[in-house]
């Protein structure tokens, strides 16, 4: 699964990191803590900035793949731990980054711990992706809704992605996570349109990496994804898009 995840999940656009640098002032002297680095997709971009990066990843296999992917960067250290149980050994950081991972951290601990491990004046940055649709383009779930209903009827996780313009209107706060209260200042929010293209088999592999599909029984998941791949081949010219708005939410540590 780590190799599949690394291959099919979207990365983060260069412009996001350009804005992260501009907002926080981070440079090659900055220390960065990344919470939940996965296979190191965002970590590579952080390391390319020259920062010293300590990356935490609770999944043993994910962390091992991240170490292999990041072996050429001497300023990156990957530690296997949850954020809640991680031993900071008194280390303090200039920037904390969580890329599509903050919602996995216990909210009763997450924000206070983030505040504690950041230096005065430090910055908190949440990166993520929102799947969106455009009204003038075919969208894979819309094209395969009958297959989802046939193989797994009544699943509450199925549904059309929101329209891009509706997502852009939600540009305040820290998104779909608990609010940090007075621990951090107001979030600066920036959006970045991105798109992935897949053939039928590639799109099925992408879905295989997503939690609504991973939690299905294999005897339901595999026939469903085989049917989705076949539908993309026969009705969509074996070419399907996945549109996202990548998002950066960044705010400064309150004193």
Automatic annotation (TrEMBL):
<dbReference type="Pfam" id="PF13649">
    <property type="entry name" value="Methyltransf_25"/>
</dbReference>
<dbReference type="GO" id="GO:0032259">
    <property type="term" value="P:methylation"/>
</dbReference>
<keyword id="KW-0808">Transferase</keyword>
<dbReference type="InterPro" id="IPR029063">
    <property type="entry name" value="SAM-dependent_MTases_sf"/>
</dbReference>
<dbReference type="GO" id="GO:0008168">
    <property type="term" value="F:methyltransferase activity"/>
</dbReference>
<protein>
    <submittedName>
        <fullName>Class I SAM-dependent methyltransferase</fullName>
    </submittedName>
</protein>
<feature type="domain" description="Methyltransferase">
    <location>
        <begin position="32"/>
        <end position="122"/>
    </location>
</feature>
<dbReference type="InterPro" id="IPR041698">
    <property type="entry name" value="Methyltransf_25"/>
</dbReference>
<dbReference type="InterPro" id="IPR051052">
    <property type="entry name" value="Diverse_substrate_MTase"/>
</dbReference>
<keyword id="KW-0489">Methyltransferase</keyword>
């Amino acid at each position: 699964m780590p190799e599949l995840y690394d291959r099919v999940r979207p990365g983060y656009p260069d412009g996001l990191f350009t804005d992260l640098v501009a907002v926080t002032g981070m440079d090659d002297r900055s220390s960065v803590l990344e919470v939940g680095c996965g296979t190191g997709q965002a970590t590579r971009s952080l390391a390319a900035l020259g920062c010293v990066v300590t990356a935490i990843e609770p999944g043993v296999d994910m962390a091992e793949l991240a170490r292999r992917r990041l072996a050429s960067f001497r300023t990156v250290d990957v530690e296997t731990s949850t954020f809640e149980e991680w031993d900071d050994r008194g280390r303090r950081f200039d920037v904390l980054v969580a890329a599509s991972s903050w919602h996995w951290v216990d909210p009763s601990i997450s924000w206070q711990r983030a505040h504690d491990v950041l230096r005065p004046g430090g910055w908190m940055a949440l990166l993520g992706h929102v799947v969106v649709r455009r009204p003038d383009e075919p969208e894979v779930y819309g094209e395969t809704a009958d297959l989802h209903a046939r193989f797994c009827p009544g699943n509450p996780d199925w549904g059309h992605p929101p329209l891009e313009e509706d997502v852009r209107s939600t540009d305040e706060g820290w998104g779909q996570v608990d609010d940090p209260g007075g621990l951090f200042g107001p979030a600066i929010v920036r959006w970045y349109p991105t798109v992935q293209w897949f053939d039928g088999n590639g799109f099925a592999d992408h879905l295989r990496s997503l939690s609504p599909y991973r939690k299905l029984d294999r005897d339901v998941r595999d026939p469903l994804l085989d049917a989705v791949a076949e539908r993309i081949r026969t009705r969509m010219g074996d070419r399907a898009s996945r549109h996202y708005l990548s998002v950066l939410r960044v705010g400064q540590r309150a004193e």
